[in-house]
Amino acid sequence: xxxxxxxxxxxxxxxxxxxxxxxxxxxxxxxxxxxxxxxxxxxxxxxxxxxxxxxxxxxxxxxxxxxxxxxxxxxxxxxxxxxxxxxxxxxxxxxxxxxxxxxxxxxxxxxxxxxxxxxxxxxxxxxxxxxxxxxxxxxxxxxxxxxxxxxxxxxxxxxxxxxxxxxxxxxxxxxxxxxxxxxxxxxxxxxxxxxxxxxxxxxxxxxxxxxxxxxxxxxxxxxxxxxxxxxxxxxxxxxxxxxxxxxxxxxxxxxxxxxxxxxxxxxxxxxxxxxxxxxxxxxxxxxxxxxxxxxxxxxxxxxxxxxxxxxxxxxxxxxxxxxxxxxxxxxxx
Length: 333
Ligand SMILES: [Zn+2]
Hints:
47% of the residues are buried. The chain is globular, with a radius of gyration of 19 Å. The chain has a nine-stranded mixed beta sheet, with helices on both faces. It is 31% helix and 15% strand. Helix 5 crosses helix 6. The protein contains nine helices and nine strands. By secondary structure, it is an alpha/beta fold. It has a single domain, classed as Rossmann fold (3-Layer(aba) Sandwich). The site of zinc ion (ZN) has 5 residues, from loops.
């Protein structure tokens, strides 16, 4: 890659890549960060803020290369902020949401933002005017292979140690684009393993671990859950609300020092927030009685280590455990 191939965003170093830019990049990326690389695959702009943001902030501070893949442009999102005048039409909304996404990524600490280039399907058929072209629309089965191919390219270029996506079943919030994001990530992860990197690098590498990020639980000390409860006031049990989990995490990442990025990153998505929601998020969260953490389930592990997960003694505290040795963690500050 030439460092000037991605679009450098202002005030903080985040490289923004469209699919066309990524295709033109030379293989492989030269960063090969000794401290590791993590790729998070999300469906829409703002998902990166509400799911696992504090984890990314922590790893970024530890020197890990952090990569965000956003599958769609969020074209079906409604503008909920009455103070924002956004012209009608998917491209106008996508333009606004792209800027919000970049700002959110800067706040969280993503080094790279990759716009995979698909269109938001919306939660209901009425929310999009062209369902055939959407990420999970009528013809997605034809686009599915293309989406997997693009994601494989991302994995080959950035050579992450760890990949994060959504659970395979998402009863709490079964948005079709979220289900597709999970499906293509699993397929791309497995396909890259099968095919190898296809690179002539001296250090070919495929992703070692695949995690599902869990939706906030009503009863745990979750960084995302704290912001969520601030936003909603209480757990109402609705489709977008935190609920009792049926799956136990196999990894709990302590993020107390970084939990503040969640509200700030959500606030960056101003078009998607009512004024009440913005006011709620702007109020600092009350102190918690214990450490905050983001929770994950390990669903693929190619590190070769022997381990068992499933009881409290085996819960991981580092998504990179078992991966190649990480360099010395730099001093924070
Ligand atoms: Zn979403």
